Amino acid sequence: MNSTIKHSLSLLALSSLTACGGGGSNTGSSTKPAVQPPIMVITPTVTPADIQQAVPSLTYADSSQEFAFVTAYNNFRSAMGLGLLTQSAPLDKAARNHLSYVMSNSSINGGTVDMSSINPIYNIPNFHIEDPSKAGFTGIRVADRVSFTGYVNTAAIEEGSYGAGAGATAAVKTLLATIYHRQGFMNQGIRDIGVAVGADLAQTTIINLGFGVKSQSNSSDYVGVYPADKQTLVPLFASPEAPNPYTEISDVLNDTHRRTTYPVSIAIKEGLSLAIESFTITEAGHTQAIKARIFTSANDKAISSSNAFVVGYEPFKSNTTYLVSFKGTANGTGISKNWTFTTAASCLNVFTCN
Fold it and tell me: Less Cβ crowding at N or C end of the chain, within 10 Å?
């Protein structure tokens, strides 16, 4: 892997020195050539990171799905160079409350709410919205629900996933195989986490992410990529999500795995603007990049200005190494980054690859 971030400013000053002779008998004068000072290269000041690199031990039972989920998620954040998350009792309680609401009211369980449909008022899936008239209501949006349980900051993010009988680690892998939900998982400011995993066959999982009293912050020169450099067992395709980022795919559940690669992403310091000159994926031993879609804030309003994703139009080949190449700028500062990853031998889905 090679990574370069370059920015320089050259200052040039010219000065003239004139020498004049002394003594009455000196009738001439001489001029020395102009002296040019050395070029000064000014390196941009890097604002250091303020992130949690260690957190208190989890209080979930070691054998619980919640313990497995948070452990897997913090492992991902560590690999990405992001701050770890601290377990929060109020966020745990809010997650349990919302899980109870979803279980009671989902049409899958005999309720009247299609949790995957988009709420016409809030323009997000009903999975993340509670109806005051329904059983188990504790707040319309996640900010209301974490406030109800006494969390210190109502700025919060809610994610939802399913273990589908394969456990909470599978729920993490499912989220990482998406675009929008992975972006939420890569949030650099979140500090706390609360999780609740259902006992239903789908293992419905609610994740609440909070910013605490003070948000975490990565360094100003941060560049994170996923899959990580030299990562192995990378899934071959993406996981369906709601809303659906692939506008040309109408049958999301049946076609996403046939018409996508696993998403590849790059992120810079939140708040900066990422501009792309090129972002490609090339099979090892080949020169032609695969045909792919690129998602940025310029063509998808759900993508933040500091993130970009590239997704091919058909699954990766199994047992194959790919080279990713990115060239662009972060607020005008050049970025050039290359890395590789190797895919799994086979995948029944994004969480059963070997």
Answer: C
Residue 125 located in a structural domain: yes
Q: Are residues 183 and 285 in the same domain?
A: no
Contacts of 298 (CB under 8 A, 6+ apart): none
Read off the pTM: 0.82
- Indicate the residue among 189, 210, 231 that finishes a domain: 210
User: What's the one-letter identity of residue 348?
Assistant: L
Which domain CATH number covers 242?
2.60.40.3780
Which stretches within 186-305 are classed as H helix? 252-255
For 243, what's the count of Cα atoms within 13 Å in the CB-facing half-sphere? 12
- Give pLDDT tens digits for 112-125: 999 999 999 999 99
Domain stops at, among 210, 238, 272? 210
Q: DSSP strand E in 237-306: where?
A: 264-268, 274-283, 292-295
Quick: pLDDT tens for 199-218.
Answer: 998 999 999 999 999 999 99
- For residue 200, the 8-state DSSP code is S
Domain count, the chain: 2
Tokens of 292: 């792919």
DSSP-derived 3-state class of residue 208: strand
Single-letter amino acid code for the residue at 82 = L
Distance CA(300)–CA(280), nearest Å, equals 18
Spatial CB neighbours of 24, under 8 Å, sequence gap ≥ 6? none
Please work out, in degrees rounded to the nearest 5, the angle formed at the alpha carbon of residue 91 by the alpha carbons of 72 and 162.
Answer: 45
